[in-house]
Design brief:
Layout: E1 5-12, H1 16-28, E2 32-35, H2 44-47, H3 68-73, H4 83-96, E3 103-104, E4 109-115, E5 120-125, E6 130-138, E7 161-163, E8 178-182, H5 186-198, E9 201-206, E10 212-214, H6 222-230, H7 232-241, H8 269-282, H9 298-315, H10 319-325, E11 338-340, H11 343-346, E12 352-356, E13 362-366, E14 369-372, E15 375-378, E16 381-384, H12 393-397, E17 399-401, H13 408-411, E18 430-432, H14 445-466, E19 471-473, H15 475-490, H16 520-532, E20 538-540
Parallel strand pairs: 1-2, 1-6, 2-3, 4-17, 6-18, 7-16, 8-9, 8-16, 9-12, 10-11
Antiparallel strand pairs: 4-5, 5-6, 13-14, 14-15, 19-20
This protein binds ligand NA7.
Length: 541
């Protein structure tokens, strides 16, 4: 099949990473094409339209910082933006910067092959488009490949079946319906209160309870926003360089900026509660920042977890339901902490039933419900909120081949390996935005996306100035980085979480802790230092 086009850079994905890349590369004067599998921009915010979907980072922080004009012009309406509002923001960015003309929609990339003799990437889509490019940049997102449960009979269900991450754009009206939902991660925890408020009855099939903290969402006070925006540079600096991984509290005088207490270990329950009450009432994932050692000291972590378990027992009236909702199998924060609106209180409703499928596992999904080991539950509509093949799923779904035809699938057979979470030895001129080995999912994604794109643009500018046409990370640099990522992870409690951070939710996936856990500030310093030392660890030619 003839190649339709040859460009400087091909970008895969038109989520926030793809949009910002396109904006920056175009400014550099490079010709660029973006392939996007959806029919619109927005990436994760295009697909995840389930009821209650909203961001768990605050809207004024979960937004681009590169354009002060955009920052001032765009008005967020709530503390945590809803999916429709974030999608509108992505559309606004695309239109305002006239990005759509270089994006080809409904084009799913299936293969990318590096030709050493030509020093070109050849990229193919499912529809048969082919493009040759000097550089290939994967902006494919960390949570873009849905994970359907391997439950017997899922196809037998006769009623409507919806998947959180592929929700119909026209929405679903649950009025008058009885509904069953599987999955109590962030998606389930956001959707359950909204579905319960609409449906006749909702049955929640829970395998593992998760820790959730109240969002304390609300409409933003516009006077406060004006004041906040006057200080936007200061706030952005804090999010990019601080210890908060880009999430920080956005109060004008935030609790975050009063130093965290060193530890909860050794404190009395009353002392722990005194510190945490302030964070609980203020709301947000930022809760865990109350103590410096919450994710490294087991005793401190347990004290924080006890506080949350006690909150669940206070909120949920039925003691047995409360106990079933109390997470006891992982340290708090080692699976992504959820941020909710009325999640636990929803179990006080008469039309909601919690079923513990750890105690009585699912035998089979049948045509009108779910059969458990100890009985059957019938309902009209099934909702699946069962997560993603995170971080590596989208990359490994494509047939990516580097030098000498080396498949990325082979290179990553025992888990992802990268240099700085951005590049892979054996795969010249290929970058990944927020790839495994970078802070990515442990951070505010917008902060991490901008940092990666800015760094990549710096690297490509350096190459252009020096007359280089090819870069590749050295094996030794990659080995060292992989070791460092593991070393940082093993100094934390994260590996005890059995989470999707570790690939633990996908059968057969290697158990490797994928994100870099030292925080966005420390990571940025490393990347800046690599650039300043003539891109240490990269070979150019
Ligand atoms: P998650 O956090 O991976 O949650 C998936 C949920 O689905 C979780 O409760 C799983 O239980 C459950 N699940 C998955 N497979 C099954 C089967 N086979 N049977 C029963 N239950 C199952 O995905 P989300 O979409 O909620 O959130 C992902 C991220 O998106 C989130 O962290 C935010 O960053 C945004 P398990 O824990 O495996 O027992």
């Amino acid at each position: 099949m003839p190649e339709s086009k040859s460009v400087d850079v091909v970008i895969v994905g038109a989520g926030f990473a793809g949009l910002y890349l396109l904006y920056r590369l175009r400014k550099m004067g490079l010709t660029t094409v973006v392939f996007e599998q959806g029919d619109n921009v927005g990436g994760t915010w295009y697909w995840n339209r389930y009821p209650g979907a909203r961001c768990d980072a605050e809207s004024l922080a979960y937004s681009f910082s590169f354009s002060p004009e955009l920052e001032q012009q765009w008005q967020w309406s709530e503390r945590y933006a809803t999916q429709p509002e974030i999608l509108k923001y992505a559309e606004h960015v695309a239109d305002h910067f006239d990005l759509r003309k270089d994006i080809q929609f409904n084009e799913q990339v299936t293969a990318a092959r590096y030709d050493e003799a030509e020093n070109l990437w050849h990229v193919e889509t499912a529809a048969g488009k082919q493009v040759a490019a000097h550089f290939c940049i994967m902006a494919t997102g960390c949570l873009s490949v849905p994970q359907l449960p391997a439950i017997k009979g899922v196809e037998q269900f006769a009623g409507p079946r919806y998947q959180a991450s592929k929700w119909p754009p026209e929405g679903v009206d649950f009025s008058g319906q009885t509904v069953g939902i599987i999955g109590t991660g962030s998606s389930g925890i956001q959707a359950i209160p909204v579905i319960a408020a609409q449906a006749d009855h909702l049955t929640v099939f829970q395998r593992t309870p998760n820790f959730s903290v109240p969002a304390v969402n609300g409409v933003l006070d516009q006077d406060w926003v004006v004041q906040f925006k006057e200080n936007y540079r200061k706030h952005r600096h804090y999010h990019k360089h601080g210890l908060s991984s880009g999430f920080g509290d956005l109060q004008i005088e935030p609790v975050a900026r009063t130093p965290a207490a060193p530890t909860a270990a050794g404190l009395s329950d009353a002392q722990v509660a005194e510190i945490l009450d302030k964070y609980w009432q203020r709301g947000g994932a930022f809760f865990l920042s109350a103590f410096e050692d919450s994710l490294i000291n087991e005793e401190s972590n347990t004290r924080i977890a006890d506080y949350v378990r006690n909150k669940i027992r206070e909120i949920v009236k039925d003691p047995q339901t409360a106990e079933t909702l109390c997470p006891k199998d992982h340290p708090i924060g080692t699976k992504r902490i959820c941020v909710d609106t009325d999640y636990y209180a929803t179990y006080n409703r008469d039309n909601v039933t919690l079923v513990d499928i750890r105690k009585s596992p699912i035998e089979e999904i049948v045509k009108d419900g779910i059969r458990l080991v100890d009985g059957e539950h019938k309902f009209d509509t099934l909702v699946l909120a069962t997560g993603f093949d995170a971080m590596t799923g989208a990359l490994l779904n494509m047939d990516i081949r580097g030098r000498e035809g080396l498949p990325l699938r082979a290179k990553w057979q025992e888990g992802p390996r990268s240099y700085l979470g951005m590049s892979v030895h054996g795969f010249p001129n290929l970058f990944m935005v927020t790839g495994p080995g970078s802070p990515s999912v442990l951070s505010n994604m917008l902060v991490s996306i901008e940092q990666h794109v800015d760094w990549m643009v710096g690297c490509l500018t350096h190459m252009a100035e020096a007359g280089y046409t090819r870069f590749e990370p050295e094996l030794q640099a990659e080995d060292h980085w992989v070791g460092h990522v593991n070393e940082i992870a093993s100094a934390t409690l994260y590996p005890k979480g059995g989470s999707w951070y570790l690939g633990a939710n996908v059968a057969g996936k290697p158990r490797v802790f994928m994100p870099y856990a030292a925080g966005v500030g420390a990571y940025r310093d490393v990347c800046d230092d690599v650039a300043a030392s003539n891109y240490r660890g990269f070979a150019f030619s």
